[in-house]
Each structure stands twice: as structure tokens, then as C-alpha cells.
């Protein structure tokens, strides 16, 4: 009986040894120990690293443009509003031009362009002068609008292509994971996990770069539209100023004829 019991234990031990382990049973020592974002970056393929670095640079560029354009819009918008309110007072075109001096802000250039056209016209205030002044003001407004919008195109580009760049990194990382499975002849999670994690990190970075870029771009577009409206108000005030001077001139001529 004892020999039979011993033989049974031996057979049972051999049978358990030959039974295949479950597919989900893995050796903990084979799993990557550092799955932090930095650790995943260091362990990523060179192509995925390039994608991540590019997305990080794009995100940095987004916030740099936001800071620079916000400061510029606030400074130029405040100055444009101040000069536009000054034009609402009772003054002549020559007085407005003298007040601006050698300033190079948008409204100052509008005033100087208007005064330059009046000077070239020999001081003759007629319908032709108003048309020429309107044309000059339109050109200056367009130039100032292009200047203030410079740099915002970068945000539109980042917002449009960053998700696709992140998706490319995702596809590349998953492809490497399948290659690792094929080479190791196993479906162990220790082989698949690093590539999947790197792929998801590339996707996350793409969204981190794209979402703020789109939001900031829309915010800056609204700010630029408000700035253009201020320039339009300044141009309207200058046209009114020229019209008033013309009417006063006609009024003085009529009184002199009496």
C-alpha cells in the first residue's frame, strides 16, 4: 500500500509539471519596472521618441505664442482705444497728427497716413480727398491686421496635425509590440505591455498639444477681431474729422461771400 501511495504522488507531481500554465500567468520579473512617462519615453523606439519630442516642442510653441500674442493684443488694444477716444474730441487733422509725433502704433499710422494725403492734396478738402483718405486707411488697416495676426497660423497648424502625429506614434508602437510577439513566440503581457504603453503615451501627447492649440487659436481670433474693430472705429473717426473740416471750410467761404 505504501509503495502504491508513493507511486501515486510521483505520477501526480509529473502530471502537474506537464500541465501548461494559464495564458495570463506571467513571470513578474519579466514585466517592465518603470512605466512612468519618463521611463516609457526612455524605453521607446527611436521613431516614437522623435514623435514625442516633436509634440512636446509643438506644445511649448503653443504656449509661447499664447503668451506673446496676449501681451501684444492687450498693449496695442489699450493704446488704440486711447487714441480713438482722443479723436472723438474737437480737434483738427493737423492737431491729431502733431499729437502722435513719431509713434508707430496702428492708430498713429492711420492718422499720419490721413494727414500725409491731406498734405499731398494741397489742403483742398473735396470729395476726392475723402476717397483717397478712405483708400489709404483701408490699406493701413489691412497691413496692421496682418501684423497682429502673425504667428497665429502656427496654432492652427498644430491643432490640425498634432493628433495625426500622435496617431502615427501609436501605430508605430503597436506595430513594434506585434513584432515583439512574433519574435518571442509568446503572447505574454511582458512583451506586449511596453509597446502598448509607449503608443498610448504618444497619443496622449498628441492630444495635449492639439487641444490647447485649438482653444488658444479661437481665443486669439476673437481678440484680433476686437482689435480690427478698434481700427475700424479709428478710421471712421478720421473720416468724420476730415468731413467736419471740409464742412467748416465751406461754411467759412459762405460767410465770407455774404
Automatic annotation (TrEMBL):
Domain named MotA/TolQ/ExbB proton channel: residues: 125-226
A Pfam family hit: MotA_ExbB
Listed transmembrane segments: 41-68, 154-175, 195-218
Superkingdom in the source lineage: Bacteria
Location(s), subcellular: Cell inner membrane; Membrane
Topological relation to the membrane, as annotated: Multi-pass membrane protein
Function description: Involved in the TonB-dependent energy-dependent transport of various receptor-bound substrates. Protects ExbD from proteolytic degradation and functionally stabilizes TonB.
UniProt subunit comment: The accessory proteins ExbB and ExbD seem to form a complex with TonB.
Family named by the database record: Belongs to the exbB/tolQ family.
Name the UniProt record assigns to this protein: Biopolymer transport protein ExbB
UniProt organism field: Bradyrhizobium yuanmingense
